[in-house]
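Please predict the structure of the following assembly.
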Amino acid sequence: MHFKLRPATKEDCKEISRMILELAVYEKMPDQAKISHEELERDGFCQNPFFECLVAEVPEENKSKDGFTVVGYALYFYTYSTWKGPTVFLEDLYVMPEFRGNGFGKGLLCKVAKVGKEKQCVRLQLSVLDWNTPSRDFYAAQGAQDLTDSEGWHFIRFDGQKLDNLANEAPKD
Amino acid sequence: MASFILRKAEPRDVPDIMRLIKELAKFEEMEEKVVLTEKDLLEDGFGDHPFYHCLVAEVPKLQSSEGYTVIGFAMYYFTYDPWIGKLLYLEDFYVMQEFRGLGIGSKILKVLSEKAVKTRCSGMHFLVAENNTKSIEFYKRRGAADLSSEEGWRLFEIEKDDLLKMTAK
């Protein structure tokens, strides 16, 4: 199947937003996806964007059963390791189920790796849910190591009221 | 009680930040993994497009340890969660052993939280090693959630050699 992998434009944000929700449903956390496509447009296409995005696009004749031609995406940003330097963090990678098995996912991952290499990134990191065996196997096949398993790293978060409480205790200047 | 100040790191702080990074890595039993140099830190944090922001904790010279006045640091940057938006990501957070228990770490965390809220972040994220029970307790006491335990998130990494193989495809 012919497909194109290209940087996302502001106009793609509606489709990306749709697929973000599809991925959240797959990850069994649909209520947690709260960002609108307008916020994506603002945060990804401002002067200092908070993320970059690539999309997978098929020609009109191969569009999805619901009529979509943008059928996959990879959303990533740059982080920093005090041990090794610049890192690319792949936040989301998703291909619509009817387009899987055609190399779109691998293509997107390789393209993100290429972008990272151009920015002197020394590694690529991502997070996967423990029960998501197809994804864990996919990344392992590309050489990824599970650092939660081998080194015991856990993701920690402060948000909502807990974050506000801490912030309110900050000393006033 | 030690008096201390928290301030934005400057290029002159790079040697101290490097020293503290190595101390923290040693504490995490992964000292040999630090390949970053002072030159890298300087370029990456104080060049045209900084990859990180840094706060340092400083004590007056009289209270310093072995001549060091910079005795703690926190390195952070901004990331993005497509579900909730902007996040403040805390990469490294460390206070020298002899200066712990004085409220320095607590104050750093509060200042960063305030920064997160002021810059419209929905949360503050970071990684902790599961055997680092003291740090986990420190964060949990203040309301942090362990997403790896609660939701099953695992950290995966593809290192340089495998990345290069992918770019060749």
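Chain A touches chain B through 75 residues (CB under 8 Å). The longest strand of chain A covers residues 70-81.
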